[in-house]
Write a structure and sequence with these properties.
With about 400 residues, the chain is an alpha+beta fold. The chain has two domains: about 220 residues, FAD/NAD(P)-binding domain (3-Layer(bba) Sandwich), CATH 3.50.50; about 120 residues, 2-Layer Sandwich (D-Amino Acid Oxidase, Chain A, domain 2). The strands form four sheets. Strands 6-5-14-15-16-13-17-20 form an eight-stranded mixed beta sheet. Strands 8-2-1-12-19-18 form a six-stranded mixed beta sheet, with helices on one face. Strands 3-7-4 form a three-stranded antiparallel beta sheet. The longest helix is centred in the last third of the chain and has 23 residues. The mean pLDDT is about 95. It binds flavin-adenine dinucleotide and 3,4-dihydroxybenzoic acid. The site of flavin-adenine dinucleotide has 32 residues, from helix 1, strand 2, strand 9 and helix 8.
């Protein structure tokens, strides 16, 4: 069978691309490795930038997000028990972030795709891509135990870090950059009201901790652990005790409750400096990974898609390939900014050097500077809510 744009992956990137293309009358099909139930329950990010919320609204898929998403106008930063707040409104001209779980975003976007008649083939495993240097590439995939070929004009590799899209970019067309951090995050979801009205990012001499939330009754928290650690080492009691110490500040108490999800995520920065070749275009985690400390992963994926959808629309409407040509360069400005900010937040809040060492005292000085300097607080606020200009 055939379509105009063959999309590999039904994550935030693939699902938003399909909706944007469909609006312009450009046919597409999404191939997704996993079952619908699996992708809708995969627990990941929760922080949406204003741009991301705006796009979901534009796509007419924001009914639940508008009701259940929680707008935040500031964030707490903590260093060994000293807490300060960075307000967004006054520092960014009124921008804010919205807390809404990635699996809820994915559910809403899948429903919107199906409502508009876009075909999503679940449990369809893309195995290889041929002909990206021709005008008629094909994706070969397996579905229900049978091999199929999807012939298209363009292939969008929205298939995440472990996908096949990136493997089909010729090795001599890009440089690759990578940092593997010497720590991981243990993330939990718990049935307990959040103990804070806004997120808390905390450095503590025992390690990083983050207090986030999903709703008025569900809290989401993270804690820095060793790379070789396992969830079996962390009883519920030990997790709450450690979070309470790391997030603690005078006159504040962390409420605990039943934990219903625990998982460990490694931390890496990964980049390629070209995201396209011929008729193959990569977007989202397929092309870049940021450590989660800046809350940027999902937002970057959606930002890539804005450029890709405009470029493809311009090609179909006007036979103009200039935006396709500049696609990688257009995306990379924002990606590098997010790489830098995510790396900055990671080094600022994680324990990586002994308490009281030179490196650790630099961390403390950077933290103190946020409270002293409006310029530094603004730098954090504008990167955190997401820059409008790139
Ligand atoms: P994905 O959401 O990964 O979607 C890619 C899709 O492609 C998947 O559904 C996959 O099943 C499918 N696929 C892969 N290979 C194939 C194939 N061969 N054929 C067909 N389909 C295929 N970001 C934050 O900002 N904060 C966080 O706390 C955070 N936590 C995270 C925790 C984990 C465990 C992970 C993995 C990521 C986390 N992220 C976080 C990052 C964020 O979730 C991603 O940046 C975001 O999902 C990127 O969206 P995407 O659409 O590019 O990729
Ligand atoms: C969440 C995750 C993040 O990585 C982050 O920086 C902020 C919030 C979350 O899951 O809620």
């Amino acid at each position: 069978h055939s379509t105009k744009v063959g999309i590999i992956g039904a994550g935030p990137a693939g699902l938003t691309l399909a909706l944007l293309l469909q609006r312009k009358g450009i046919d597409c099909i999404i191939l997704e490795n996993r079952s619908r139930q699996y992708v809708e329950s995969r627990v990941r990010a929760g922080l949406l930038e204003q741009n991301t919320v705006d796009l979901i609204r534009e796509l007419g898929a924001s009914e639940r997000l508008d009701k259940e998403g929680l707008e935040h106008h500031g964030v707490y930063l903590s260093f060994n028990g000293v807490r300060q707040r960075v307000p967004f409104k006054e520092l960014t001209g009124g921008r804010c972030i919205t807390i809404y779980g990635q699996q809820e975003v994915v559910k809403d976007l899948i429903q919107a795709n199906l409502d508009r008649g876009i075909e999503i083939l679940f449990e369809a495993h893309a195995k290889h891509i041929e002909g990206i240097e021709t005008e008629n590439p094909s994706i070969f995939y397996e579905h229900n135990g049978e091999e199929h070929e999807l012939s298209c004009d363009f292939v969008a590799g929205c298939d995440g870090y472990h996908g096949i899209g990136r493997q089909h970019l010729p090795k001599d067309t890009y440089n690759e950059f990578r940092i593997e951090y010497p720590f991981s995050w243990l993330g939990i979801l718990a049935n307990v009201a959040p103990s804070s009205d806004e997120l808390i990012y905390a450095y503590h001499e025992r390690g990083f901790a983050l207090h986030s939330l999903r709703s008025e009754t569900v809290s989401r928290l993270y804690i820095q652990v060793e790379n070789d650690d396992t969830v079996d080492n962390w009883s519920d009691e030990k997790i709450w005790e450690e979070l309470s110490i790391r997030l603690g500040t005078e006159g504040w108490k962390l409420q605990s409750g039943p934990i219903f999800e625990k998982s460990i995520t490694p931390m890496r920065s990964f980049m390629i400096d070209n995201m396209q070749h011929g008729r193959l275009f990569l977007a989202g985690d397929a092309a870049h990974i940021v450590p989660p400390t800046g809350g940027k992963g999902l937002n970057l994926a959606v930002a890539d898609i804005r450029f890709l959808a405009s470029a493809l629309t311009n090609w179909y409407d006007n036979q103009d390939d200039s935006l396709l040509q500049s696609y990688s360069q257009d995306c990379l400005r924002r990606i590098w900014r997010a790489q830098d900010f995510s790396n900055f937040m990671t080094y600022l809040f994680h324990k990586q050097a002994p308490h009281g060492s030179f490196e650790n005292l630099l961390q403390k000085s950077k933290f103190d500077y946020i409270g002293i300097s409006k310029a530094q607080a603004t730098t954090i606020a504008e990167n955190y809510v997401g820059l409008k200009e790139i």
